[in-house]
Amino acid sequence: MTIDYKNISVYFTVSGKGETVVLLHGFLETSEMWRDLAPEIARTHQVVSIDLLGHGETASLGYVHTMEDMADAVFAVLQHLSIEKAKFIGHSMGGYVALALAEQQPQLFEGLCLMNSTFEADTEERKALRTRANEMAKTNFENLIRMSFANLFAPQSKINFKAQYEAALNIALKTSLQGYMAANEGMKLRPNRFEVFKTLNADKLVIIGKKDTLINREQLLSKIENTDINFAELSEGHMSYIENISELTYFLIRFIEK
């Protein structure tokens, strides 16, 4: 399904019945990443999965998609569906988008799970990497995607889950140059949203992988200590929905049914 939004189409899917769970994919992903998880959740809940700006079947608005821009598009879909309350699960960039939405529309949230994601802003080093990547993307886009994507998995996972890795990579390779660059610029601009997350009146969960090189585990754990934010750690890398699917499903179902 699609809605018209600012002269583009925003794509989303709806399945199941009951209280709503909103699934937000990460950078270089689409709503297709939830194909194994969504049916499990849809047994007891209504599941809404949205292609974020510049990803999947949702077009780009410009050459900078801030997390607030993406959150606005998500909110437009939820308004279209008359959804007033939901639990949100955001993978990586999807978590950043969910946090931006939580800052704007906290009343929507019954729960928020940051899955392989963080409330921290980019470090200066990470910002510089994104800037370099966007320059490289203009001339060597496919190789850049392949290189970036490889870093998301624990080394052994690329062997153990070769078919799933290739399928996810093929989806990533369909991302447009504009969608890639706009999201990278937007992630660079995002602020630290720890206070937004900490003070959100909702169930809160952070899930990370022990071998995830994109998340600063120690920094994250020190921040959430002595808060009401729950934490779960899986054995592998950034792509838990491939690398740790059974354990991830267990934690997400517990979070949803809480």
TrEMBL record:
Hydrolase listed as a keyword: yes
AB hydrolase-1 domain ranges (all copies): 20-153
Gene Ontology molecular functions: hydrolase activity
Keywords of this entry: Hydrolase
UniProt-listed Pfam families: Abhydrolase_1
Cited PANTHER family: MONOACYLGLYCEROL LIPASE
The protein, known as: Alpha/beta hydrolase
